Amino acid sequence: MLNWFGRKQAPKDVAKDRLRLVLMQDRLAVAPQTMEQMRDDVILAISKYVEIDRSGIEFTWKDIDRKRALVASIPVISVKRGGISNDRTAQRSY
Amino acid sequence: MSETIVITSGKGGVGKTTTCANLGVALAIQGCKVVMVDADIGLRNLDVVMGLENRIVYDLVDVVEGYCRLRQALIKDKRVDGLFLLPAAQTKDKNAVSPEQMKELMMALKEEHDFVLVDCPAGIEQGFKNAIAGADSAVIVTTPEVSAVRDADRITGLLEASGFSKPELIINRLKPKMVARGDMMDIPDILDILAIDLVGVVPDDEYIVVSTNRGEPAVLQESSRAGQAYRNIARRLMGEQVPFMDLTEKESVWEKIKRMVKLG
Ligand SMILES: Nc1ncnc2c1ncn2[C@@H]1O[C@H](COP(=O)(O)OP(=O)(O)O)[C@@H](O)[C@H]1O
Ligand SMILES: [Mg+2]
Predict the structure, then answer these.
(1) Is residue B167 within 8 Å of residue B160, measured between CB atoms?
(2) Residues of chain B contacting A1 with CB distance shorter than 8 Å
(3) What is the DSSP letter of B250?
(4) Domains of chain A: which residue ranges?
(5) Tell me, what's the ipTM?
(6) Total domain count for chain B?
(7) DSSP state, A2?
(8) Residue B26 near residue B234, CB atoms below 8 Å
(9) CATH code, B8
(10) Which residues of chain B make contact with A11, given a CB cutoff of 8 A?
(11) Is A25 exposed, middle or buried, given 0-12, 13-18 or 19+ CB atoms closer than 10 A?
(12) Domain range for residue B10?
């Protein structure tokens, strides 16, 4: 909050920075149900390829470099080999 | 062509009613036929700001409920030709009226007036929905403060979701001295954040308080800076290109020194 003269940042600039952040959150506001649904859809998609530890899933918003990011942390137990490689073989043999 | 304009803000106390009264008078002075509608049911204010509180017989809810004819409820302002007020009910609550009824009312008012100005209540609930129901366009009032600008952004989103393609912004109570010191957000700061078109900037003006006490909108006072700003906005609403007032004020040397000493 101190600029290069060792002075505090001007109040108007503090206001502007705070507004930018809060509006980013407001504009991206998502209902909790939507969040849950989104999480379930992501899990479903990923489960086709890997076996995951459902109890350890984290799915949240984070503010990174003034941008809103959707961050998912999904612990993987193992990679499923079966289905996918079969598909590939099928494609190749065509 | 006539137009219904709703004056909104989200946050209360930023100057919607003041804006509605002043724009109403200014448009009427320009020769337009104007009706101001107080949609703040249960908390009516526009009547006292206009100094017309002693002349109310019927109100908006009486009209909607068919208790009286629309024309009976309109109060004619004797100071300016072609200016009318439709007062809000004071004893009923917001739910006494539905958006459909408001739409119908606005249609009827538009037939007889060039401008219908709707003073919207604070908030985003029923009262807001009623106030925007019959409007063609919207003006959003904000002050240069974080909470007011935030609410203005929320209202912009809600208006756009309700089909208002281009709400316009009025920045009210700008204090040029504070802006010069960097203590208050400036016009470009706010526009940068809100990304909507500006229709006017009204300086903070003590005369607004005096005029509200008297029930005589500041527009009627030639020397009032806020009055001048509202006269300009009225002409812009009529489609004229009017340059923005220069509101910049430099700090005096003495003020600057005082501030430096305090900060140092
Ligand atoms: N430009 C201005 N300068 C000084 N005071 C103002 C200005 N605009 C509004 N006010 C004051 O701010 C208060 C709230 O205004 P009002 O129009 O009632 O807001 P709202 O209708 O949005 O609740 C009133 O006391 C009014 O006199
Ligand atoms: Mg009001």
Answers:
(1) yes
(2) none
(3) P
(4) 1-30, 31-92
(5) 0.83
(6) 1
(7) B
(8) yes
(9) 3.40.50.300
(10) 182-184
(11) exposed
(12) 3-263
